Amino acid sequence: MSTHSSPPAATPAVGRWQRLRDSYLWYSFKRDRGAQLCLATLLALVGMALLAPWLAPTDPYDLAQIDILASELPPFWIEGSDPAYSLGTDAQGRDLWSIILYGTRVSLLIGFGAVLLQALLGVVFGLLAGYLGGRVDALLMRLADIQLSFSTLMVAIVVGAVVKATLGGSFYSDYAILMLILIIGLAEWPQYARTVRASVLAEKRKEYVDAAKVMGLKSRRIMFRHVLPNTLSPIFVISTVQIANAIISEAALSFLGLGMPETHPSLGSLIKAGFDYLQSGAWWITLIPGAFLVVLVLSINLLGDWLRDVMNPRLYKG
Prior knowledge:
This protein is mainly alpha-helical. 73% of the residues lie in helices and 0% in strands.
């Protein structure tokens, strides 16, 4: 009878722990006005980006809707503005509000796509390194160390030069979103790998892993069905920070001319496009997209900081 009484006793304990953490997460969110504001801001920006074709007054990719004679018009609160362009126009005569909406969508697509690639590579490598150990662990962690020695900018320069030399600059421009996702994703996966490896090293010593081995389960099933679910909390926390980092990396690369082309702009390429016009007085071409970028990244970072503090295991003691 004693052999059958242990498993039922452990299951309610795990369920109570999960319910306790979930309830604390919701309780903390309801009491934290900053987290609520950040989430509302982020959801609003994501919603506007997704609804860009319906919210934008014009299509910035349609050359027939661009009026070059209306270039560098100021926002509505400055004398000389045009009511048809609430935030003014850029140097090409495109409505600034429209290209900000479309540019935000491009930046978010690159950010989420790059983080998805980072997580896929990092989680798999971290699981293999932490669970298998030995030479596999040493090899994968040395690869991570080598990767961390190369910055995202350096990887972008090398990959961009190789692609442009072999396939041409037009190919890079046509597939700029995919190229940036690959560049940023391949440059930042060690962050996930190291975190997952540390969690796996702690989890594989626990009794449920030993029990799974005794039952004859294969290592692949133990890793992905039993160990991986218990490492999701740090993965979620890292993902929020990495999304913001990926968006900033894309903006930096676009500002340096290694990212999105001006014909298919992101927030970073919009800032770059207007940088040359600061001295002429058309500051809104750079500063308004820059303000959107700051609000977007700041809301993600602050939300990630709150999530990291709430999901800290030390907060659940007692």
